[in-house]
Amino acid sequence: MILLISVIAVFAVFFLMIMVADCNRFVIRNYRCKSKALKKDGTIILLSDLHNKSFGKNNEKLLTEIERIQPDMIWIAGDMYTSVKGGDTSAAKALVCTLAARYPVYYGNGNHEHKTRLYPEYFGAMYQEYADVLKTAGIRHLVNEKISLPSFNMDIYGIEIEREYYGKFKSVKMDVSYLEALLGKADPSRFSVLIAHNPDYFETYVKWGANLVVSGHVHGGLMRLPYLGGVISPAFKLFPVYDGGEFEKDGAVMILSRGLGTHTLPIRIFNPGELVVIRMTQS
Q: pTM for this structure?
């Protein structure tokens, strides 16, 4: 019995050490996206699920790596802060404003931004103050709208879906008509990028016309196991199909970030934060 308790204690300490380390570090993941529809090449940094985390003072470690990569633009896939009454958004504000002074930034909301926008009677002015900061910084905050980049022959859409699509223990079907009502129809002559926080609807995004989807939300499944991948999704699905990485469907691609921070369950085991780099090429 003493031996068993000792073994359990050793494993508990080991996993605790991994968790503390992975919650406070990030790795760089590189992806390449090819399309003949693009008019020129470009390098994009994808950020997601910061949850007001700071890697070093004023996120200096994150900013140093981004500066080293020298991207053409920054895409943000939501949940840069956490929807907690009276919660802090200062690290998220400081990071996005610093980035906006150096690069074009395109920002799509996650479920946490959406929640604070919907319920100002509970969260106060958290969302509006944050959105005002983004606007002042010159960030293109895409809430069910798009921006066209003619030099790339690219349209970037940011979608904010309703809370029912983030339900626990269940999946709500999403029709293409729902996306079209929010965004209109994708132009097949242009390369369409969809910033969509929730990856669960990748197949519907593809049917709508997205060539590239960038997502977050799942945090890599909190803990990752060899051959099995992420353990659990925010909807409490075990071993979710979309947990992190690159996925392909009918010629379209989704790049799913495992995020940078944590909330509610501050767990990352064999699952450090991610700074995602996407190299866009014409061939």
A: 0.95
